[in-house]
């Protein structure tokens, strides 16, 4: 087993003036980790995976596996010499071959003796919950079972690293959720380093030890699921990692027990968000607030607004989602935001509510010049 070190990796398609598919990427993937490359279409995540696999030659930078350089602008080790397996989005199983014949193919290329090969195939099929299905053809399997065949074919050759290119995107929602659990358990059992590509934030959060968020060919943040969700490095990451409200505010000196610090004033209400030293009083900022960090309460006539540390808003719409209710709200200033509450906390469209924010779970970003207030 070995980790992957990516240093200053760049890949251009067409002219350099047209921009890089991947630009100056630095990434340290530790051995025995589940690492996800996450981002929207065109962000460079699949190109990065293909560079790691050896299907694409970099224009600059290097990729190391352990102590060995496997990719540089001068030389690229072929995919079959890297000790890696690859699982594709479309499964890529042979429709005319049985499950056994699909999975044993790589062992035959390596001239593994037939008895040993059969044992390895049956053991691997059991590992991916396909025991007893070795004689079936792919058209006799469900989509999830076909994906397991693709996994087994990669795992049977005992790779040190497994690369997965959006392998669950063709499955329905419930099967996708089941396969997430199976993939994570499989990675823990085998100890193989998984590098996984997806555009699905929930998938990345559920599966990963580390997430590399990419945008425009550049790495925006590399960290644990908790870090990238709760402590995003910038507005791009905050906006991509699920639903977020950006509330316009202004940095102000704190008063009372927190005197000497800074707060963010939103609609005149001080929010004790984590304002670090690079911000200055009077600076316009955006407060990033997740819907689950918004607390709603009935709005009484007394002790409200800045005096009570609560904002005032009107419910403009609502959606019942079973395990939660999502509300669309409008602050007195006209700013819109979303909140999520327990289904037993019910409000009606048109209700005026008091609104407080769990400030510790918020992030503060400078507001871009010319941004809407």
Binned, the helix content reads: 10-25%
Percent of sequence in beta strands: 25-35%
List the total number of helices: 8
Radius of gyration: 25 Å
- State the distance separating the first and last CA atoms: 52 Å
Describe the oligomeric state of these chains in a short phrase. single chain
**Overall CATH architecture of the largest domain:** 3-Layer(aba) Sandwich
Characterize the main sheet.
6 strands, mixed
The chain-level structural class is alpha+beta
General form: globular
Kindly state the mean pLDDT as a whole number? 89
Query: Can you tell me the CATH class of the largest domain?
Result: Alpha Beta
What string, H for helix and E for strand, traces the elements in order?
A: EEEHEEEHHHEHEHEEHHEEEEEEEEEE
Number of domains: 2
> How many beta-strand segments?
20
GO molecular function: ABC-type transporter activity; ATP binding; ATP hydrolysis activity
Membrane topology: Peripheral membrane protein
Organism: Ancylobacter defluvii
Keywords: ATP-binding, Nucleotide-binding, Transport
